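Lecture notes, part 5. Sequence design as translation. It can be helpful to think of inverse folding as translation between two languages: the language of shapes and the language of residues. The source text, in structure tokens, appears below.
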């Protein structure tokens, strides 16, 4: 458990500037820090039906496992080029579904949209 907590804290620290950028945008224009994925592509009908993924700002998509005992999940990436740090910086062109993405309890699936 200590290892999992340490990894989560380290991840948060490594993205502290992204949290601050999202908070600054919230103050400037009222956008929520944590956003539904339809926020970045409201014309994509797939984004309107997904309620178990979210965005941190406009460029970080988080897809946590929300079911007990599950260690993989399907992930939808809206338009853009997305990079996952959990598989060697491989990039994916959205919109697309990633089927059966590995998501053990020790890994938080997330993707960074490239500009």
């Amino acid at each position: 458990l200590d290892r999992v907590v340490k990894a989560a804290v380290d991840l948060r620290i490594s993205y502290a500037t992204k949290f601050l950028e999202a908070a600054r945008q919230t103050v400037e224009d009222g956008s929520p820090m944590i956003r539904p994925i339809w926020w970045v592509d409201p014309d994509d009908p797939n984004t309107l039906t997904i309620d178990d993924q979210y965005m941190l700002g406009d460029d970080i998509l988080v897809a946590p496992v929300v079911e007990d005992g599950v260690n993989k999940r399907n992930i939808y990436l809206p338009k853009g080029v997305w990079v996952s740090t959990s598989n060697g910086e491989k990039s994916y062109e959205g919109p697309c579904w990633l089927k059966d993405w590995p998501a053990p309890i020790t890994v938080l699936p997330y993707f960074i949209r490239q500009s």
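The translated text above is only one of many valid answers, since several sequences can fold into similar shapes. The two ends are 35 Å apart (CA to CA).
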